Amino acid sequence: EVQLQASGGGSVQAGGSLRLSCVVSGVSFDDYNIGWFREAPGKEREGLSCIQNSFNKTKHSDSVKGRFTISTDNAKNAVYLQMNSLNSEDTAVYYCAASTRWGTMIAAYDDWGQGTLVTVSS
């Protein structure tokens, strides 16, 4: 029922920016929390940001706080992750997911979208 499609990844130079998109279908933003995660080479999947649209409530992990911003576009049924000041540590496959619980813990998310690759070069 719930479907999510992540896109917008690519290759950028260190210090650059990218905006990732997650198109959500089959579920209302009011019923779920939408989160962004990433899986870097050799590392476990990491929770980054999440948003509850109806109350405009957001949360970011310490690793991206101040650099990444999560937002929504109700008309497009999309969730965005604006990534600024990118560095090599941000190189990873990025995923969006949906959960009925609040937070960025991976175990709370049952529905995952297709990942999009972000590569940051020095």
Largest sheet: 7 strands, mixed
Radius of gyration: 13 Å
What's the average pLDDT?
94
Regions with pLDDT < 50 over 5+ consecutive residues?
Answer: none
- How far is it from the N-terminal to the C-terminal residue, by CA? 41 Å
Describe the global form: globular
Portion in helices: under 10%
SSE succession = EEEEEEEEEEE
How many helical stretches?
A: 0
Summing up helix and strand content along with how strands pair, one would put the structural category as: mainly beta
* Strand portion: over 45%
Annotation, overall tally of beta strands:
11
Keyword list:
51% strand; 4-stranded antiparallel β-sheet; 0% helix; 11 strands; mainly beta; 122 residues
Brief summary of the model shown:
This protein has 122 residues and is mostly beta strands. The protein has strands at residues 3-7, 11-13, 18-25, 33-39, 46-52, 57-60, 68-73, 78-83, 92-99, 111-112, 116-121.
Structure commentary:
The chain has 122 residues and is an all-beta fold. The protein has strands at 3-7, 11-13, 18-25, 33-39, 46-52, 57-60, 68-73, 78-83, 92-99, 111-112, 116-121. Strands 2, 4, 5, 6, 9, 10 and 11 form a 7-stranded mixed beta sheet that branches. Strands 1-3-8-7 form a 4-stranded antiparallel beta sheet, with no helix packed on it. The relative contact order is 0.32. The model has no long low-confidence stretch (mean pLDDT 94).
